[in-house]
Design a protein that fits this description.
- It contains 13 helices and 27 strands.
- The strands form eight sheets. Strands 1, 2, 3, 4, 5, 6, 19, 20 and 23 form a nine-stranded mixed β-sheet that branches. Strands 8-17-9-10-13 form a five-stranded parallel β-sheet, covered by helices on one side.
- It holds the Pfam family FMO-like.
Length: 504
């Protein structure tokens, strides 16, 4: 891929930079190498390991709530019968995939991105990188940047506003920073939260705690999912690749239909979900108190409990779920607003993530800082006014990796269109008349507390045209096959100071 050499001789110059070596970044790297074989590229990862999320979290029970046949890379299918697996196993899978296709040499660990600055006179991104062990940061320039840094920060969690938490005499642990030597054995533990993390930790520690209480401010929808697909039997009769592809297709289709039913028919969906909980806990259990949310299904992320482990845990004599707010925390536990005191030796605050898709990285153009806030997202992939920059995230509803793959494919089509037409830059652009009176929607439409809190850090969509926002994998795939590469885009063929010389 043609590119330009900067006037800064001490800098390294590449065609493409991928930021992040989690599942999105690894997938992007594979696609860049396979679809743009002449491009020079590298993957920058701030941590010392590949795998992103799956090498970061350490709390008990950590896992993915998607089936691996759906979550896995299309180019390295999951060939095992077990579908819902621990997070550590997914980290191993990512390593296996990287080595299987020879990507490890292109991934630079310990390369933390401090900021990105677009140089208009060169039509290149200058990326400031702090390399572990080096005193001064370095600059790497690239014509194209694909940001795959996820949607939350590693080093910061959503602050848990819990009255009196500093008064507590025991341990307080946030799952994001789980200590390696932490132990729940024989302790009275309160897990605060109603999201996936809390609902996963609760059953994982139930057998070792003397008492474990799940304390939630309000209920969430919970559904059981099997850890093994019935179609996994195909692995015994068919070639591994064929079996994996069949299971993946059926899994993604089932996932789509499940979400479509829940969102399209909320009244029927609520009844079906309630019926499922009653079937596990019994008609006498206070299901409506603990499992009847105020919102419709998938307005917040649904809890998918592996083999119904949450319900199994609730049948144990040392477990309890309490739906109440916290009045205060004292030295020995939690006093709820209803006046009940819950004794504890440990409090686990599973209260949410700090959502920020760029992490601590600064984005600027010619030295002028640029914010993602209220910036329109084209096809969920590129940001209005930001040239040659791919913004890759997965689906919040459904398996994450297929969404990342769809967006990366879309961005690569933009890149190839620019190459084919001789353009140096590709910039999303919304006409001024189209902006007049336009109603905006959140880029991430979930109403969970940590997403609502993050709205001023996120782009927006309009619900129309190329600015519509994302819905599901099937529509994203249709866009990749048939969507316009020019609608809502400006391609510039000449930029002062920029050439089309091969990167050096």
């Amino acid at each position: 891929m043609p590119s330009t050499k900067s006037s800064f001789d001490s800098e390294e110059h590449l065609d493409v930079l991928v930021l992040g070596a989690g599942v999105a970044g690894v997938n992007a790297a594979y696609l860049v190498r396979s679809q743009l074989p002449s491009a020079t590229f590298a993957v920058l990862e701030g941590r010392d390991t590949i795998g992103g999320t799956w090498k970061f979290w350490k709390y008990p029970g950590f896992r993915c709530d998607s089936a691996m046949s759906s979550y896995a890379f299309t180019w390295y299918p999951w060939k095992h019968e077990q579908q819902v697996v621990p997070g550590g196993r997914i980290g191993e899978y990512v390593d296996e995939a990287v080595d299987a296709v020879g990507l490890r040499k292109d991934i630079r660990l310990g390369h933390k991105v401090n900021g990105l600055d677009w140089r208009s006179d060169e039509a290149r991104w200058a990326v400031e990188v702090q390399v572990k062990g080096e005193e001064k940061p370095k600059i790497i320039t690239a014509r194209w940047v694909i940001s795959c840094m996820g949607y939350y920060t590693y080093d910061k969690a959503l602050p848990a506003t819990i009255p009196g938490i500093d008064n507590f005499g025991g341990e307080v642990i946030h799952p994001q920073f789980w200590p390696e030597d932490a132990s729940c054995e024989g302790k009275k533990v309160i897990v605060v939260g109603s999201g996936s993390t809390a609902m996963t930790i609760f059953p994982a520690i139930a057998d070792t705690c003397s008492q474990v209480t799940l304390l939630q401010r309000s209920p969430s929808y919970v559904a059981s999912i099997p850890s093994q697909s019935r179609l996994s039997v195909l692995h015994r009769f068919l070639p591994a690749l064929l079996a994996s592809r069949i299971i993946r297709f059926v899994g993604l289709l089932t996932e789509y239909l499940f979400v479509a039913f829940l969102r399209g028919y909320p009244t029927a969906a609520k009844k079906a979900l309630r019926k499922g909980v009653v079937a596990r806990l019994g008609a006498d259990y206070p299901v409506d108190t603990h499992f009847k949310p105020r919102y419709n299904p998938w307005q917040q992320r649904m809890i998918l409990s592996k083999d119904g482990e949450l319900f199994d845990a609730l049948s144990k004599p040392n477990t309890e779920i309490v739906t109440d707010t916290i009045q205060t925390v004292d030295k020995t536990g939690v006093l709820t607003s209803s006046g009940r005191h819950l004794d504890a030796d440990m409090i686990i605050t599973a209260t949410g993530l700090f959502v920020d898709p760029t992490g601590s990285s600064r984005i600027s153009m010619d030295g002028v800082p640029k914010s993602l806030s209220n910036r329109f997202a084209r096809r969920g992939t590129m940001l209005e006014g930001i040239p040659n920059f791919g913004f890759i995230t997965g689906f919040l509803v459904g398996s994450y990796t297929p969404g990342c793959n769809a967006l990366t494919q879309n961005f690569l089509k933009i890149m190839k269109h620019a190459e084919d037409t001789g353009a140096v830059t590709a910039t999303p652009e919304m006409p001024a008349e189209e902006k007049k009176g336009v109603e905006t929607k959140s880029f991430m439409s979930m109403t969970s507390t940590y997403f609502v809190e993050a709205q001023d850090r996120l782009p927006v969509v309009t619900g129309k045209g190329v600015w519509h926002g994302r819905e599901n994998l099937w529509k994203d795939t249709k866009v990749n096959w048939f969507g316009s590469m020019t609608e809502g885009m400006r391609y510039d063929k000449a930029v002062k100071g920029a050439s089309r010389k091969k990167a050096e």
